Amino acid sequence: MYPGGNLGNINPTNISDGGDLPPNLLEFLTELARAMTAAGIAVMTIEAILKNICRAYGVKAQEVIDFPTFVLIKISDGNSKALAVTGQKPGLLPLDQVSRLYELIYQAENAEITPEQGINRINEIINVKRQHKYIRHILGYALYSTGLGMLLLPTTNELLFCGALGAIVGLIVGYSEDKPRLNLILPVLVAFLVSMIFFFGVKQGMVKGSLTILVPALSYFIPGAVLATGMYELAANNVISGSSRLVQGVVILLLLLFGVLIGLQVVGLSAGAYMVAYLATPLGWWAPYIGILVFTLGMYLLMSIRNRDMLGVLMVLFATFGGLQIGNYLLGGLFGAFLGSAVMTMVGTYLERSKIKTPYYVSIIPAFWILVPGSLGFISLATLAGQNYSASITNLIMVVLTFVAISMGLVIGAVIADPLKIE
């Protein structure tokens, strides 16, 4: 789901004429903040970028306060001061737009463009017209779902079933792309249709009763990145923004769960007719590595990754998966989540500063789905369908600890990566 909206409706409130300030700088900063928020970038990162840009233009950023719903920017230059407050909306932009946005940020941090040019560039990036490409959505989501399935599912039959469910979701996502009203109910609608097909397959004996089959097909809506970013912001003492993201993530999980339960009731399958599986026998040692390649190809089609960023995305994905596997082998799942997250952050930061120049945010967003934090939360909630409440509570505690591990991995990885300098 990509947020729409025109960024040109900003109306900054100036507390002085700002005669000595660079023309249109305040409007440029507010529009850039809104664009980064629309991409889902953490508020600490947004605030740091805006302060860097102010320094590049010789202006002091007296106050930069960014929240998911509004941003406040106060800048000064000598006796001139200006203040802007504007609303904004968090979301998820296609990664090619995020990549171009970061190119603009690099230029602005070196004062290589005028604020007016920056405003025009932002409008060009955000308001780009995209044609409906149902084949791209269907094929992309089928590959995306199949790739994740190779990390979770044990048999070829279940893998094909997983890819078919992904293709159905891709069709729905493509149809609803320019329909805001439908987007409001999309998580429930998709969860209902996918779960109904799955439970019907279980009832007819076409597929084994494992709820993990639902995870790849629904994972696009499972807010793993939102929840992990929220925990990261809380760890960095950004209480309001972190709490709002956590509430948003939990609500989406509950909507997905509601759709799954309605699908179960419509099919008329008894709760004991299926099982919840957390671990599955892999197809072979090669399956996860091929799965990452298939998953990346699906992300390329679904999230519109630029060709120049594909190498960096692949490197971060394999590094994250390697850290996850090593951590699982050494100390178990929580350490695996922590180590995978830390490796993801360090490698993503390194690549952004290297000649590859893949933006950090572009490379780590696909890697969040490899960590699968949202999937764990969804499966734990789904155990309620079987009325196994004690197991649900135990698993939910582990999910909370998993998010803590991932957020700490982000923090520790950022601390370690900060002094890295690429010549």
UniProtKB/TrEMBL annotation:
Does the UniProt entry include the keyword Oxidoreductase?
Answer: no
Q: Tell me a Gene Ontology molecular-function term this record carries.
A: transmembrane transporter activity
* Domain of life of the organism encoding this protein: Archaea
Q: Which Pfam families match?
A: ThrE (PF06738)
Q: Which InterPro entries match?
A: ThrE-like_N, ThrE/Ser_Exporter
Write the record's keywords in alphabetical order, separated by commas.
Membrane, Transmembrane, Transmembrane helix
Transmembrane spans: 32-50, 134-152, 158-175, 182-201, 213-234, 246-277, 283-303, 360-384, 396-417
**Threonine/serine exporter-like N-terminal domain sequence ranges:** 28-266
Recorded GO cellular component terms are: membrane
Q: Which family does the record claim for this protein? A: Belongs to the ThrE exporter (TC 2.A.79) family.
Return the PANTHER family for the record: PHEROMONE-REGULATED MEMBRANE PROTEIN 10
UniProt-recorded name of the protein: Threonine/serine exporter-like N-terminal domain-containing protein
